[in-house]
Amino acid sequence: MNRNVRRAAITTAAISTALALTACGTGTGGGQTADPEDFVSGGTFAMSLNEDPGDLSPLTGVNLAQRALVPFGYESLAYITPEGETVPWMAESWEESGTSITYTLKEGLTCADGTEFTAETAAANFAYQANPDNGTFWYGSNVTEDMTASADGDELTIESATNNPFLLQSTGAVEMVCQAGLDDPSSLADTTNGTALFELTDVAAGSEYTYTKRDGYTWGPEDVTSETEGLPDEIVARVVTDEATSANLLLSGELNAAPIIGPDRERVEAAGLQSVGILNPIGQMLFNEREDRPTSDVRVRQALTLALDREAIGELVTDGNYQESVSLVNKIPLTCVSDGPMWELPDTDVDAAAELLDEAGYPADADGDRALTIRFLYDGATPTHGAAAEEVQAEWAELGITTELVAEDPTGWSTDLYQTYDWDTGFIQLAPSSPVVLSLFFLGATSEDGGYNFMSVTNPEYNALAEQAFTAPDADAACELWLQAEKELIDRVDTFPLADTESPTWLNGATLEMPGSIAPTTIRMLG
Q1: Which spans in 331-450 are helix H?
Q2: Are 357 and 402 contacting, i.e. CB atoms less than 8 angstroms apart?
Q3: Helices 350-359 & 298-306, crossing angle to 10 degrees?
Q4: Burial level of 318, CB count in 10 A (0-12/13-18/19+)?
Q5: Is 440 helix (H, G, I), strand (E, B) or coil?
Q6: Which of these CATH numbers, 3.40.50.300, 3.40.50.2000, 3.40.190.10, 3.60.10.10, describes 22-279+503-525?
Q7: For residue range 394-420, what is the model confidence (pLDDT) as tens digits?
Q8: Which of 203, 230, 428, 437 has its CA 20 to 30 A from that of 465?
């Protein structure tokens, strides 16, 4: 069994974070290759963001666009190659056991503010991340409260009170913040203070974010330095909310990279541009299980999903690029995916759906109306979501269900998912690289209590299996338990992975690796 490791993203329409854990399988994504003779050093690498990132803090920021920018200012102890190999980055080597790992840091690490980055600073990072009061996204997945960190010279040792089969992969992926940033976390909202090859030098909120290459950088993965051939002098992330505009700018050469998944994808592809693809669970549905919502009843959730024609909706939501889901883990490195799934989605059965709604207390009246209204959220910025949501509405109407469609923007997502909780279901995606990351949303505290379980799911069978998996003796045993746990989520319809697709980031005039998000040390400008 091949357990590659690669950084991946965890996203909903309202939240996202880049995380990495161990793999049990392979998947889409990776990098582009080009002849080094074509590399041209200097210039500007321009990329698009489909919304403004807002707060840039790597400690607490959760916006998708914000997380896409984190790698440009911050680095990790280890890096994962497109082939899934864990290689040194800030650390030159490591030794691990089931309950501890010791990293030896590279010499000469310096921060954007000119200070030295030491093992003591690295230990302070893990102490900060392990404190639940700080509310970091890493807490509970890659860093847990039972971890302690200490420094001795250039060595950082992290110890876990329980056995952790993925200790290297989890701790090695955490981005390191320099001491001044830890001392004043609020300062990271609009500045960067890490050891990265690039540092933030200009912010035009809502428009552009400029990162400039640092001199004297010598510790990149696979021997990348400030002098490596083909690196740009600066990176500019431009906020472009309209996908057609992004396509126009990409084709004209004004952008070097842009994610394009809607109708404009065809003309970009026709122009002969290359892309880097990542798996996208674009049609995944989550459910609000709070007591005051109809979707708190498992029979309602079952009925809603049994009534759907998955393929018809899947073709719409993916713009004809429909793939059946095979796992709730859908970002590289697709941890624990190759032996699964243990679950199977049911076939469409409208009659069974009607019976379940009758049992749940929503019988049809003489006109066929069930007096059941479902508030369905979808991303207004995702071109294919609207048509697919209308198809869902039409199919549920055949059962006598009224569906209120809500096209969300970033403010709306935040309000509905995390403040008013006024929603029932919708196209709301999670994109974890491992089941450990996935567990944050189903096992953890609800958002009312400061956690990430914004659906208010309580699944005792899943919880019990997840707790066992956390301390499994090895990765094989852990994956077996996680696959069983995932089946419990599907069987109870805590989520419904209706359709996946591959989302490409298109390139013009540059090559790069994109294991979840763009890896800045891999950008090479082309002549």
Answers
A1: 350-359, 385-397, 410-415, 435-442
A2: no
A3: 160
A4: buried
A5: helix
A6: 3.40.190.10
A7: 999 999 999 999 999 988 998 999 999
A8: 428
